[in-house]
Design brief:
Helix 4 crosses helix 5, helix 4 packs antiparallel against helix 6 and helix 9 packs across helix 11. A hairpin with a 5-residue loop joins strand 1 and strand 2. A two-stranded antiparallel ribbon has the order 1-2. Strands 3-4 form a two-stranded antiparallel sheet. The protein has a single domain, classed as Cytochrome Bc1 Complex, Chain D, domain 2, CATH 1.10.760.10. It contains 11 helices and 4 strands. The N and C termini lie far apart (about 70 Å). It is mainly α.
Length: about 220
């Protein structure tokens, strides 16, 4: 009887914990998000826009990205797990609801277009070996566009120079203004030379995907 009672109590505690976690999850509003993106469009709303820190590279496409990943990335900048002065300042200006709204907006932005989907190129033997070594597809999914968890990013089709810089950033430790602290990605990226990361980046960039840059009216 005591064992059964303890089991029931444990189940109730677990259920209450799950309920509490769901209750605390902030629901994003895409319409509200459309009014909160002024700080985003100057980089992410311009086709081919290039950042210059810590080196020149095209900024990532975020229209069509997973909302949960966008929130996760913004929180990582806010906590200093991702180090980038501009993104840190932007994330510091956003509360949880703001982040959820902006993420909801961009996850829906530009979706439903009728553009033809290009075929995915076959990976070379060398790239296939690198992909297998890193176990990349296991998390990022088919064509790097169907991650196993919505808090992981879609990366297929992102600019190659951005992917390369992002991967290198996981190898950077101790820098005050640059680098990303992520145990999983850090362990993976450190297995590769920069030349190998560049080769991976070129392949992932060649893949078709949902991500795009949709110019805002200010930049059409």
């Amino acid at each position: 009887m005591n064992k059964l009672l303890l089991t029931l109590i444990s189940l109730l505690v677990a259920s209450a914990t799950v309920f509490s976690a769901h209750a605390q999850e902030v629901k994003g509003d895409a319409k509200a998000g459309a009014t909160k993106i002024a700080m985003c469009i100057g980089c992410h709303g311009i086709q081919g826009y290039q950042a210059s820190f810590p080196e020149i590279y095209r900024v990532p496409m975020i229209s069509g990205q997973n909302a949960k990943f966008i929130v996760s990335a913004l929180n990582a900048y806010k906590k200093g797990e991702r180090k980038h002065p501009t993104m840190r300042a932007i994330s510091d200006s956003l509360n949880d609801q703001d982040m959820a709204d902006v993420a909801a907006y961009y996850s829906e932005h530009g979706m439903g277009g009728s553009a033809a989907v290009k075929a995915a190129p076959a990976a070379s033997a060398k790239v296939a070996e690198l992909l297998n070594k890193g176990g990349c597809i296991a998390c990022h999914g088919d064509n790097f566009n169907k991650p196993i968890d919505p808090s992981y990013p879609k990366v297929g089709g992102q600019p190659a120079d951005y992917i390369f810089v992002a991967l290198k950033s996981y190898k950077t430790e101790g820098a005050a203004t640059w680098g990303r602290a992520n145990g999983i990605m850090g362990g993976i990226a450190k297995q590769f030379s920069n030349a190998e990361l560049k080769e991976l980046a070129r392949y992932v960039s060649s893949l078709p995907g949902d991500l795009k840059t949709v110019p805002q009216s200010e930049f059409r």
